TrEMBL record:
GO terms for cellular component: motile cilium; nucleus. The keyword Nucleotide-binding does not apply. It comes from the Eukaryota. One of its GO terms (biological process) is axoneme assembly. This is Uncharacterized protein. Keywords: Repeat. Residues 229-255 are annotated as: Disordered.
């Protein structure tokens, strides 16, 4: 699912105070939203959190009228830093953001039980990542480009592991299969063959044509790590697209308009962010949040899928790709 963007609603500035939406909270000497506050927007979206000179900045919670919600860090009005976005259908992204896009390291949980964990760039999967297929239990571990499996990678199943290269989500070219029980390697290559699927409904010619990967075996040898392809490595980007630092803390407002602690009467919103409340109630830097989540995961009884996720997290941080690939 593509990201759900917040409706374009302008923030208050100078003489536009009290014109857009309902706001309760702190302001600065220019009467801009500044400090801690909450707002009910004209489109019925809701935000509570930190502001800086009229813009969302720092930790905040944004609840959409359709049930989606974002809980995490903002910088100058945009999602930036560590944050969690939950969509109406139950899909969820947990990780780094930059300039309102998924960017850096993150985990995306799909409604069907699949999940992706790894690098993101400008809103799409790009770099080193792992995709888990819930239905089959298979995993793809390798490189991504523009949201697709592209480059060196491995397909891992219960009985075998394929090492090779992917092009637009399909294996292509030279590769090899290793089998855990027989301790042998089957060498060969994949061909992508165009075929047609005849449908009684009468599809267009272009829609009938599909690409099928076909494996051509050539040789079988005893297992030897030296015969396996080089392991994929994380992509490195120039400094202009590197991850964003944590936003600086919002300076205290010069004018305090509080008459009560209104955060005590928002129990009705608890149901929207039970698990994410930790990020709102604390003002920790991103690294401290990640460390705390790791510690909580270590003491939690993990299912098979959770163990794989935890293993993947350690892999992504240590970049010890070889150890992570061990069954």
């Amino acid at each position: 699912m593509s990201d759900i963007e917040e409706e374009e609603v302008g923030e208050e500035r100078d003489e536009d105070v009290d014109v857009i939406g309902e706001y309760e909270g702190q302001r600065n000497e220019k009467c801009q939203r500044h400090g801690i506050g909450r707002a009910l927007l004209p489109n019925k979206d809701y935000y509570e959190g930190r502001y800086n000179q009229g813009l969302r900045h720092g930790l905040g919670l944004y609840i959409f009228k359709n049930g989606a919600r974002y809980n995490g860090r903002y910088s100058k009005g945009k999602k930036d830093g560590i944050g969690i976005f939950i969509y109406p259908d139950g899909t969820k992204y947990e990780g780094e953001w930059k300039d309102d896009e998924r960017h850096g390291y993150g985990i995306y949980h799909y409604a069907n039980g699949d999940f992706y964990e790894g690098q993101w760039r400008k809103g799409v999967k790009e770099g080193l990542g792992c995709y888990y297929f819930k239905e089959t239990g298979a995993k793809y571990l390798g490189l991504w480009m523009e949201g697709k499996m592209n480059g060196q990678g491995q397909q891992v199943t219960k009985n075998y592991r394929y090492h090779g290269t992917w092009v637009d989500n399909l294996p292509y070219g030279k590769g090899c299969f290793s089998f855990s029980e027989t301790k042998v390697i089957q060498h060969g290559f994949y061909l992508n063959i165009m075929g047609s699927d005849i449908d009684q409904g009468g599809l267009d010619e272009e829609e009938e044509m599909t690409i099928h990967p076909v494996w051509r075996p050539r040789d079988i040898t005893l297992f030897s790590a030296s015969q396996l392809p080089t392991e994929p490595k994380p992509l490195e980007y120039p400094s202009d697209v590197s991850r964003s630092p944590s936003p600086e803390p919002t300076p205290p407002p010069s004018v305090d308009v509080y008459e009560k602690d209104f955060f005590k009467d928002i129990a009705q919103y608890d149901k929207y962010y039970q698990d994410e409340k930790l990020m709102w109630q604390t003002d920790k830097w991103d690294t401290e949040i990640l460390e705390e989540l790791k510690k909580r995961a270590e003491h939690h009884h993990m299912s098979e899928e959770e163990e794989f996720m935890h293993e993947g997290t350690l892999f992504m941080y240590s970049i010890e790709f070889n150890n992570f690939f061990l069954l």
